[in-house]
């Protein structure tokens, strides 16, 4: 039976209360007075008409144990998610977008989020911490709220500051924690391959270098005093009084040089020389020999003055007008 609304019979709703503060609903923003606390409660923290309670942090189910706050119960406990995002590359024609893999860390103690991309050597792009650790607001129009543990799941997209991240998988601790929270985890998803990286691997592209450094010291230390010996001969039968001559070739692995000795038999009538060819490097392809003055070729080579092969000046007579001595004297006089 309800009490009548008479003096002395009405219920005082302030009995037992000790908080009677009033929330600040008005403030100045950029020098303009405006209402900034439309979502704040009324006197004493009570909700006004039409307001609903919004949790500021993650709500965890009640269980057995102590009622310690989250920053004590979940100290140094972090959820780790594998994710990736696509970055457009409009300034290059070899690639239209990049697939960049990253890690999303959710700290249970204060609902802060950190996004880190593993650093790769010589990647050419800034990597490391993409988003520093802090509370990230939800996309508009719910930007007055923040992400909590209930917004995360595997194989779903999540937006941080207008950048879409695709969560592909998580570590075992994160999986067990979300299952205990009652979250139905989706099956893991695969990360797509980066098209440009795949193209480079298929083409086996390597950086072009102006020269390739040869480590001569390493070659010397590994192959010092190692010599290859070959038995050979020189067929000199086409020349006058020529005959085959036995030779010994030594190839030094330490510096890629070679030397040749001649095998001189006793009573052969030949002088014994120390070496047939001194030690040194030999070109694989011999240079094309130059035509000497007076040699019969398609062009007549005339020596103007100076010794042969030592800075002398020559003239090429393609018309072959210098077939006799008189014409040669005329050309020399004109020069």
What does this structure look like?
The chain is of the alpha+beta class. Among the domains are: 70-196, Roll (PH-domain like), CATH 2.30.29; 216-280, no CATH class; 300-334, no CATH class. It has 5 helices and 14 strands. The strands form 4 sheets. It has a 6-stranded antiparallel beta sheet with strand order 6-5-4-3-8-7. β7 and β8 (163-170) form a beta hairpin. It starts with 25 loop residues before the first strand and ends with a helix. Residues 322-335 have low confidence and may be disordered.
Q: What labels describe this entry?
A:
335 residues; alpha+beta; PH-domain like; 12% helix; disordered C terminus
- How many DSSP helices? 5
CATH top level of the domain at 70-196 is: Mainly Beta
* Uncertain spans: 322-335
Mean pLDDT: 79
Content of β-strand: 25-35%
Output the strand order for the largest sheet.
6-5-4-3-8-7
Number of strands: 14
Give the topology string: H per helix, E per strand.
EEHEEEEEEHHHEEEEEEH
- The CATH architecture of the domain at 70-196 would be Roll
**Largest β sheet strand count, sense and barrel closure:** 6 strands, antiparallel
N-to-C CA distance: 142 Å
- Structural class estimated from helices and strands: alpha+beta
Q: Level of helix content? A: 10-25%
Per CATH, what is the topology of the domain at 70-196? PH-domain like
Radius of gyration, CA atoms, in whole angstroms: 46 Å
Shape: rod-shaped
Organism: Sinocyclocheilus anshuiensis
Pfam family, one: DM10_dom
Main location: cytoplasm
Subcellular location: Cytoplasm, Cytoskeleton, Cilium axoneme
